[in-house]
């Protein structure tokens, strides 16, 4: 009788264990959700870029939850991302990140859009000992403070336009003079300084350099001054609204250059929508394009990522690099949490420090400051209303259209 009762007891125990999700085959059980917080520019001057950032986060969110979540020591944790709108205001962004941590119980932080907001958010992440992985703050000044909890998956600001100079040095007839326009935010200033330092090493001369207030794209006076010098290359280090304003002013004031290249803006669908045919011939440095040939260790291939984006957002547009790098921030967190085998903030931070993984976006690995100096950038150009990767040659799907024809003959 005792043996019979023991057998029944064991059978019931086994059934209860199976009902709770345990099995001899090692099927993961389901644990509590992992809460990520993100303060993103959904309104304000940088709302277009902020919307792309959110798209990248949400694309990964769907994918990971379709698989039951992030697996931590055999337990699948579904993922939630709680958003706040920072209204393109850096100080508000920091306040909202603190709210996400304190009130919304966010365990990890995904970065905002822009270097200014990332810089303020990093202070909050550090104070709270909460890891932040960011994808849209490229200014190296963010990473010069000795922070231990902030990591950036994107190439730093000094790489944004130097690739355009590498490409320009291969063209014939070779351009020689540069006009450099710069918004006065930290990211844009770093981009411009890198151009000014690098240009002489490639045989170029910067003959005009001026700053203007960020997010105040009244640039006609600067364009008029630059036009009088007839530069071969016009570069702008700024953001989408400023790039659109500069391109419009160049046409209105007859500034004809062999190359127009802008740090941020041309890669986004909104640049072409705003300018139409006038967007053609413009170059930009890009963190990522659908033509890159990375072979990821997990998640989606480059081509599958493009398909997933078009399906989710019901569009014929390819994802731009803001979308891709934002997804990459999520992938860095996912892999670090898996490697840590823990949701403890410090253990996840330590796993981020040692992370080295290939994704569809490229290599994600951080130097001692927490910035990704290991992934190269590419150069793309708008041709006939479409984006083409034109440099380096090993990933290009088109050739540079050069020189840019004068406005009067387009």
How would you summarize what this structure contains?
This protein is an alpha/beta fold. The chain has 12 helices and 17 strands. The longest helix has 20 residues, at 47-66.
What can you tell me about this protein's structure?
The chain is α/β, with parallel strands linked by helices. The protein has two domains: 29-156 and 291-365, Response regulator (Rossmann fold); 159-288 and 378-409, Rossmann fold (3-Layer(aba) Sandwich). It has helices at 2-19, 47-66, 90-102, 115-128, 162-168, 186-198, 220-227, 240-252, 269-275, 302-312, 321-340, 345-353; strands at 29-30, 34-40, 70-72, 75-77, 79-85, 108-110, 132-134, 150-152, 177-183, 205-212, 233-237, 259-262, 283-286, 356-359, 362-365, 378-383, 386-391. It has a seven-stranded mixed sheet, sandwiched between helices. Strands 5-2-6-7-8 form a five-stranded parallel sheet, sandwiched between helices. Strand 11, helix 8 (240-252) and strand 12 form a beta-alpha-beta unit. The model is unreliable at 1-25 (pLDDT under 50).
């Amino acid at each position: 009788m005792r043996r019979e009762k023991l057998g029944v007891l064991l059978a019931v125990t086994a059934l209860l264990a199976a009902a709770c999700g345990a099995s001899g085959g090692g099927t993961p059980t389901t644990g509590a959700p992992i809460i990520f917080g993100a303060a993103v520019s959904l309104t304000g001057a940088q709302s277009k870029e902020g919307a792309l950032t959110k798209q990248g986060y949400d694309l990964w969110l769907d994918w990971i939850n379709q698989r039951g979540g992030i697996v931590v020591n055999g337990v699948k944790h579904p993922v939630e991302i709680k958003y706040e709108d920072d209204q393109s205001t850096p100080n508000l962004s920091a306040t909202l990140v603190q709210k996400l941590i304190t009130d919304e119980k966010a365990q990890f932080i995904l970065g905002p859009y822009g270097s200014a907001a990332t810089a303020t958010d990093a202070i909050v992440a550090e104070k709270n000992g909460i890891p932040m992985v960011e994808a849209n703050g490229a200014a190296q000044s963010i990473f010069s403070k000795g922070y231990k909890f902030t990591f950036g998956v994107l190439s730093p600001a000094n790489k944004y336009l130097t690739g355009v100079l590498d490409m320009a040095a291969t063209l014939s007839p070779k351009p020689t003079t540069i006009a450099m326009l710069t918004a006065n935010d930290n990211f844009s200033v770093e981009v411009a300084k890198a151009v000014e330092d690098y240009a002489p090493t490639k045989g170029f001369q910067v003959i005009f350099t001026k700053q203007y207030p960020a997010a105040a794209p009244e640039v006609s006076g600067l364009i008029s001054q630059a036009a009088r010098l007839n530069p071969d290359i016009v570069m702008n280090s700024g953001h989408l609204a400023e790039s659109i304003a500069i391109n419009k002013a160049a046409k209105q004031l007859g500034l004809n250059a062999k190359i127009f290249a802008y740090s941020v803006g041309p890669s986004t669908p909104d640049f072409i929508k705003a300018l139409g045919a006038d967007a053609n011939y413009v170059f930009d440095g890009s963190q990522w394009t659908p033509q890159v040939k990375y072979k990821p260790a997990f998640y989606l291939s480059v081509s599958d990522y493009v398909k997933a984006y078009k399906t989710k957002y019901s569009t014929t547009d390819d994802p731009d690099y803001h979308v891709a790098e934002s997804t990459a921030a999520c992938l860095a967190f996912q892999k670090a949490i898996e490697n840590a085998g823990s949701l403890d903030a410090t253990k996840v931070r330590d796993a981020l420090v040692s992370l080295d993984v290939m994704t569809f976006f490229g290599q994600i690995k951080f130097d001692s400051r927490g910035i990704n100096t290991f992934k190269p950038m590419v150069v793309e150009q708008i041709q006939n209303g479409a984006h083409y990767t034109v440099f380096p040659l090993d990933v290009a799907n088109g050739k540079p259209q050069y020189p840019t024809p004068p406005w009067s003959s387009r």
